[in-house]
Automatic annotation (TrEMBL):
It is found in: Mitochondrion. It comes from Colletotrichum noveboracense. The keyword Mitochondrion applies. GO terms for molecular function: structural constituent of ribosome. This is Large ribosomal subunit protein mL49. Gene3D superfamilies: SUI1-like domain (3.30.780.10).
Length: 133
């Protein structure tokens, strides 16, 4: 086979799109009804919610961080504050990273709230179901 023909056959297309534009992100099963919220929490690569526990200064400062938020962060703060019964004064939006930070460790409660709001990502199907012929 000719080297130039092989090279052009495997060449990158002229217009390069990022991988995220080509491959859709699987968030939940296709049978779930979409939730109409002004915000969206994207899942991590391991298909879980990006809610993390953070300790600063040898454990004297404890906080919970919510990452990968798209949309209205203040609406998320309002909903989480009402669900967890935590005062809004304990919430903070990081001006640089746009992460939501909450005083105290609330990782489990926030993940349960997100699972009831958006559905449980652990039971979501990440591969299409096979049709047996």
């Amino acid at each position: 086979m000719n080297y130039t023909a092989l090279r052009t056959a495997f060449a990158r297309p002229a217009t390069f799109l990022p991988r995220s534009a080509i491959l859709p992100t699987v968030r939940f099963s296709s049978t779930a009804t979409p939730v109409s919220k002004p915000y969206l929490i994207n899942l991590t690569a391991s298909n879980s919610f990006p809610v993390y526990r953070d300790d600063k200064a040898a454990g004297s400062s404890k906080r919970t961080v919510i990452k990968k938020i798209e949309g209205d962060r203040k609406a998320l703060i309002t909903d989480v504050s009402a669900a967890l019964k935590v005062p809004k004064e304990n919430f903070r939006i990081n001006p640089v990273t746009q992460h939501v930070e909450i005083k105290g460790h609330h990782t489990t409660e926030i993940k349960e709230f997100l699972a009831t709001t958006f559905g449980n990502p652990k039971i979501a199907k990440t591969t299409p179901t096979e049709v047996k012929a």
